Structures are given as structure tokens and as C-alpha cells.
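Notebook entry, structure prediction.
Reason for the run: the old model in the group folder had no record of what sequence produced it. Starting over properly, with the input documented here first.
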Amino acid sequence: MENWDDMRVFLAVARAEGLSAAAPVLKMDPSTLGRRIARLERNLGAALFVKSPQGYALTDLGERMKERAAEAEVHLARIADEGQGERAGLTGQIRIGAPDGAANYLLPQVCAAIQERNPDLEVQILALPRVVNLSRREADMAITVSPPAAGRLTVQKITDYQLHLAMRSDATPLQSLADLKGRRIVGYIPDMIFDKELDYLSAIDVAGVQMASNSVAVQLQMIRQAGVGIVHDFALPFAPEVQMVLPDAVALTRSFYLVRHTSDRRLDRLTRFAHALRAGIQDEVARLERTARLTARPPV
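New structure, fully documented this time:
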């Protein structure tokens, strides 16, 4: 491979398994990427990909090249990390993948606090209604609601968090779960629940949801319009007209985990950021949950 820029292009296409998906990562158009890959293959005298309408699949040589290129990427990152030395502040770009509950209600203020201490740091929050693919380097690290069972990944538990049934404070009160009959239930689109830990409504004996979304932020907006649903306690302070109800009847506990590439654990910059991120999320969840409890509707 002629230079690192060629390697960077090759890795992005290999991880994305196509030109269109790799283009935003590299900030290049797909046609330019196609020409770069074709030139690289000509220079090598061998094919790295099998091209088809479904995407770019690696050849045997491409698989070996990807492994070596990924190793080189890690070594270069370590060199850059060492070059940063013992600076007081973090610099460069770090991308975090997260489910939209954490992305909407926790990460903006947590990351803002980290950036206030590190003004040269650029943080990107990738909010997705699915598990972030770290193997394709969609992000430098990810927050998940279940620890991954496979892959070369390191996992640290961040914190537990609570969820309760919630509704508008001016709605007709609920005295028991039986009163849910006839109410508009808000929840996930059933066939888009990407993690069993998100199947909140299994805790409630309801036939189905009348208002659904794959986004918890949208679900909260639906509840603000007159629905009833399971809400993260840490999201309730962002919707003051919505209150926790029947906390003794419905109380769920879930956890957030921080997932990183095993090969990144020696990168001091990412490790320092991960430490600050975990501490910030722990503090913010505790703060917001305290606020939510203070505004909970008392039993009728």
C-alpha cells in the first residue's frame, strides 16, 4: 500500500462494505472512492473487493490487508496519543454512539462539561435506534443497554437507571394498572425493539400500543399529548408537565454500559475521555432522577 491515505480509504470501504456508506466517514463522494479503490487494486495487481449491487465484499487478500491495516491504524493512533504527551487538555475528535435516550437527555450536558475543561476537543454524538457497530468504526466508543456477548471489545458498566410509568399531570389519575384500559398506551414499535432490555411494556398487562415510535424522545412527546407509557426517570425533568405515576406498581431498572475496542485500551486520550464520560453520566443520572422523584404524583 503506497501511503496511509490509501490505507485509510481502504479501511473505511472495507468496514462499511460499500462506497456510499464509507463516503460520509471519509467526507468524499462515492465516485471518488471508487476511483481510489480501483487505482489501489491496479497498483497492487490484485483485487481487494468483490463488487456487486449488494456492496463491496473483501477477497481473501482484502481480508488479510484489512487485518494488517487495522493493526497499523492502532499503532499510528498510539503514536499520536504519545505525541499529545501530558497536556492538561484532551484534543482531537471523539465520536460516541448511544441509544437515543442517553443521547438526548444525558450526553449533551455531560459532553458540554467535558469540553468546557477541554476546549480543543471535538465530541460527536451518534444517536441510533440500534446497536452501534464498533467493528466498522462507526464510533470510538458506544453506550449500550446490554453488554455485548461477542467481539474484541472491552465493557464497563456505567450505572443503573430507573424507568416508571408516566403521564400528563392534568390527566385523569390512575388508581391501579387496571385503569390503563381505554388509555392510549405509548411505547416502542414492537418489531423495532433491537434489545430485549427495551421491551418495557412486558411489565404491564396491556394488549398493545396505540402510539409507537422507535425513539424514546418521540415517545415522550407522545405522552405529552395525552398518552401513558414507560419513561426514563432521567428524561422526566425535560417534560415538566409529565409525571411519574403508580411508582410502586411499575418500577424498572436497567443499566448503561460503555463499550470500547480492545485495541484502544492503551490509548491514553480515549481512556481519559471514557473515565470522564462514565463519571459524568453517573452524576447526571443521579441528579435527574432525584428531580424526577420530587415531582412524582403521590398515590390517589
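Summary: Residues 245 and 297 are 6 Å apart (CA to CA).
The old model has been moved to the deprecated folder.
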